Hints:
- This protein has one helix and eight strands, in the order H-E-E-E-E-E-E-E-E.
- By secondary structure, it is of the alpha+beta class.
- The chain has an eight-stranded mixed beta barrel with strand order 1-2-3-4-7-8-6-5.
Amino acid sequence: MTLGVVLLLLVAHQLWWTNRQARAEAAHTVDALRRDWDDGEPTAGPDPAAGPADDDPAVTDDDGGGEEGGDGGGRARRVAASPPRASQAYAVLRIPRIGLTAPVAQGISKHGVLDKGYVGHYPRTAQPGAAGNFALAGHRNTHGEPFRYINRLRVGDRITVETRDAVYTYTVDKTLARTQPGDGGVIAAVPRSNIKPYTGYRTAGSYVTLTTCTPEFTSRYRLVVWGKLTGARER
């Protein structure tokens, strides 16, 4: 009986408490970013001593249209010359279809990024609004589970990424319901699955990629959603 109670407490911690903590921290971080931007406070720059994030660029988060990418046609194309330091929150992701607002942080480490309820930016992929692939990872279950419902996204749904200087709009274009965790092609500059080579893109553009675990409560495979940059404006 005691063992059963302990197991129930562990399940409650994972499924309820970690979500509550992570969502509160993520919401606080979004508010702090917006205040800093509105007040004109300088965002902390890259930390030369930190070096690149030590995250594996494989498609992982470790929790239990057309062929061409659009350039947005907007005027706001200012992109940071160098990436933020590891684990720094520096953008806000919004997906109206699933009611998501979450901070984006540099790197995909569990402790420093994903377990805080943040969305992680894959190192060595493009920054928001830039040419290439702005690739992101997020938990599907526990720790805020920001990407729990990305399976509900459909072609034409809007994804926005707000930074200090601009707001970039991406439009959902393709999905890959299941691939292997090591399918690094889905976060390449021109995203295209290495496992299912006919799924993805063939030409350069400005893309966004969302990755998370699937099926729910497992980390056996990865679910991928792709979008193309369709708009940009100054903030």
